[in-house]
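Appendix B, example 12.
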Amino acid sequence: MRALPQALDFARAGRDPLVLLSARLLDPVTGELLPDTALAVSGGRIAALGDDRQIRSLADSSTTVIDLKGAVVTPGLVDGHLHPVSGAELTQGLDLSGCAGLEEVREALAREFRTLAPGAWLHGWGLDPNVFGDRPIEAAALAPVLDGVPALLQLFDAHSMLASPRALELAGVDGPRRFDQAAEIVCDEAGRPTGLLLEDAACELVERAAPRPTHAERRARLAAALRSMAAAGLTGGHAMDANGDSLALYTDLDAAGELPLRLRVAPWCQPGTDADALRALIEGQSTGGGLWRTEGVKLFMDGTIDNGTAWLERPDCHGESTHAFWPDPDAYTRIVGELHRAGVPTATHAIGDAAVRHVLDSVDKALAAGDRVVRHRIEHIETVPDDTLRRFAELGVVASMQPTHCCDFTRADHTDNWSRRLGAERASRAWRCRDLWDSGATVVLGSDWPIAPYPPLAVMAGARHRRPSRDLTQPPHGPDQALTALEALQAMTINPAYAAGEEHEAGRLAVGHRADLTAFADNPLTTPAADLPELPVVLTVLDGRPTHRSPSL
């Protein structure tokens, strides 16, 4: 038995110890089951591994003992990219993600309108641009349902939304505006807004006119969302924003013992950030509570391909996606250099090939200016040419990817909006998880919730089968880019720990490592990819404390 001395000082642990028996412990490095069948947890750490008899002997009257009845235990699953607070708020509206055509959208909006009080705003989310077909994405396509109704409909990419004429009127938006970043109020030839708003700066103009939930309402929604994530097997997440009162909400839940995920939070750095604001971002690093920390900074190099705001090396089929999110890309490069010198890791949203290349060039320049070891990362990486792949490993840049975006928002025959905008050549380079992995890059998987559903088993399944989750009989998009079952598990355990600089204490089943654990009814590595999302999660443990426990236990 591998154990710390003298019953692991359970009495001094500061919290009730935990013992798990009759388990199959899965090594995420080799994919093999360990010879041990039980583990003990003390002070939030794995304190001992051994057989049932040995580990049970460590328990006393203060110990929680759980018989896992043969369940398979892995290190806790971590979502490498999600937005807990904004997601909890956004997903309170009408879910339009299941609508496959305009008529379905109109019917859903009409049903929702009938439930609203007079004058209330209608909020929707998950709207797929593919429902518009060859029509422009504009509010007029949803008339007469939205006539006179203040409505905001978030498109699935969360970088654009449709505002109804009444919503625009209440917000005082009656024409184009200029922004410091790549944002736009889309207008017709006469200068009248079509309702389509691109990027945050434009969207916020109308969002400010809508009623806002109270702090208590937002706290309750966030707590409920996080509990559901824990029940799905998540023990942690890399939160890619700290907007609004996010940090206050995390602080409140953490202090109350109601934070069921370990969160690593990266606040945004936007174009126009001055020296004082940058200094504040640097000084705010490593602040937080028991289960959350501000670590790193999130930046944007472009928008999205679907709404024409990505940064591509050649324009898309509409002549769009030709510019960086930063009006002066060199200013981005300078800020990355300053953050690197301060030891602050960056996470940059870069979807198009030109955006990814510029981020890699910027990191290269930062590395050349000093010998600091800082783990920078790029988020999304939807299409990149061959000569870009090897640079991730060479520069030590983590590739943070969301395979369910490829599965559910694109099609193998390239008839979807994303693929049609790019053309066959670039669409064939979609989400190159396999190529990046084989080139030596550290690949981290995530959901980007609320853009896609957060259940981690579905994310891992998508990385393996690359088929639409709604219809697994459809052909896969880029099957040659699929990961193996073991690689998908590593990309949600070992690799997120490495990306966070925590590989010495997280991501493995080893004495001294964090007791962040996920237990499944069966082995996720031998469960077929198509069945993986339905594999029951029987226990989730965070910091040695069960956050989800199946009634079967």
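The first strand starts at residue 2 and ends at 3. The two ends are 25 Å apart (CA to CA).
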